[in-house]
Amino acid sequence: MQFFELLSRPQLEQIHEATLHILKDVGVDFHFPPALDVLAKGGARVEGNRVFFSPKMVEEQIRKAPSSFTIYARDPKKNVIIGGDNMAFVPAYGSPFVTSFEGGRRLGLLADYENFVKLTHASPHQDICSGTVVEPNDVPHQIRHLQMLYTTIKNSDKCFMGSAMGTEGARDSLKMAGILFGDAAALAEKPRMISILCSLTPLTYESRMLGAIMEYARAGQPQLISSLAIIGVTAPVTLAGALALQNAEILAGIVLTQLIREGTPVVFSGSSSNAEMRSGALSAGSPEMAINAAATAQMARFYNIPVRAGGAVSDAKVPDVQAAQESMMNLLTAHVSGVHFVLHAAGILESYNCISYEKFVIDDEACGAVRHMKKGVAVNPQSLAGQLIKDVGPGGQFLDKDHTLRHFRSALFQPVLANRDNFHNWQEKGAVHMAETARRRCEEMIAGHVPPDLPADIDRDLRKLLQQR
């Protein structure tokens, strides 16, 4: 399909040149001596914690990143291709709070984390289990990353995300993946997880993220090299300036991954948005979020690297009209812009701070609608239905024809939550609002969860690793 493009080729080149200028003359701070060593040996100029990249070095290294790659699931039917004409949906990530109409807003618990893994597993549209779909605040932080990953593996055989909690969290994730899938060579040959590692805007990488970046790169595991600049606060208020700064941070991280292991799969991950200038808080539901997503997708295509942007993100506090408006704006922008990896694709409220049970399943259905749109229009003799139109002729109807019965399931999107009854039928059935329908659907999906098979010896070894910590 043709993509929505905000920027002309000359504008892309201008942003690229501005990015190279930042990397060469301003530099990026790396607060991790092992990363400084790698970058210095790779040809960067290092002064204290500040690293300066020559244009030649940047362009040589980013060319080594693959344009697409596969993440392999326990169930091969659930393998995920990142890149090309593919779009992967991944639900919320990182929310400390959870909300439902029944229980209100509170801190997330392990039970909530498990429920959202079950919902992800049951979803026909979410492709990868999120690493921290909600923070389980009742689990000690020392073992939280291990407990989350174990809970994911127990309840889903989809691809999953590894921990971003520094060197130790990455190593623990690799150990768990090794128990499940084999040794380091097997993991490198068939990557099994992906992680999100972020810069600290502006123009900084801190030790925890760098430790994880380096561990996953050595192991050949894919990672989202991510920048979330707050436009007007941690980045210039002008979108072009913010995009150049975001670009510089992402490219600096990608250069590091390729110096550690050439060909490490990476995703160009830009999720910057503006500050609400009346308060200084991040706004995730603004048009600027969508504009940055579209521009980020163009920059990633410029570098021929898969891209992450967008998501069903919103600043709303409950799954209301504002939540629906902002979430669909961002999901549709990701689709028409050619985004490959849509993180926060289901459940997010409050600018990433809260996940909603009802919104998870509402967004999931929206993801299904967007994916249906992405299929496009098949144009062939069968779909053009020339003979059928001739047979029916003027004034006829198509409802009872074999062609309709053969094709309607694949040709038309069939929603579960959206109500298409007429007003009288809707009223007779109780005049139920979508949020209530979503709550009931959520409860059904969790109650009907059937965990995938996990061999007893693998389960034992996973639990042993968790208990050792």
Show the helix and strand layout.
Layout: H1 9-26, E1 28-30, H2 33-41, E2 45-47, E3 50-52, H3 55-62, E4 68-71, E5 80-83, E6 88-89, E7 97-100, E8 104-107, H4 110-122, E9 128-129, H5 144-155, E10 159-161, H6 166-181, H7 184-189, E11 193-198, E12 204-205, H8 207-218, E13 223-227, E14 230-231, H9 239-260, E15 266-270, E16 273-276, E17 281-282, H10 287-303, E18 307-308, H11 321-337, E19 341-342, E20 348-349, E21 354-356, H12 357-374, H13 381-384, H14 386-392, H15 402-411, H16 423-428, H17 434-447, H18 456-468
Parallel strand pairs: 1-12, 6-19, 7-21, 9-10, 10-11, 11-13, 13-15, 14-16, 15-18
Antiparallel strand pairs: 1-3, 2-3, 4-5, 7-8, 16-17, 20-21
Helix pairs in contact: 1-9, 3-9, 4-5, 5-6, 5-18, 6-8, 6-18, 8-9, 10-11, 11-12, 12-17
Overview of this protein structure:
This protein has 469 residues and is α/β, with parallel strands linked by helices. It folds into 2 domains: 68-374, Trimethylamine methyltransferase-like (TIM Barrel, Alpha-Beta Barrel); 381-411, no CATH class. Helix content is 47%, strand content 14%. It has helices at residues 9-26, 33-41, 55-62, 110-122, 144-155, 166-181, 184-189, 207-218, 239-260, 287-303, 321-337, 357-374, 381-384, 386-392, 402-411, 423-428, 434-447, 456-468; strands spanning 28-30, 45-47, 50-52, 68-71, 80-83, 88-89, 97-100, 104-107, 128-129, 159-161, 193-198, 204-205, 223-227, 230-231, 266-270, 273-276, 281-282, 307-308, 341-342, 348-349, 354-356. It has a 6-stranded parallel β-sheet. The chain has a 4-stranded mixed β-sheet with strand order 2-3-1-12. Strand 7 (97-100) and strand 8 form a beta hairpin. Helix 5 packs antiparallel against helix 18 and helix 10 runs parallel beside helix 11.
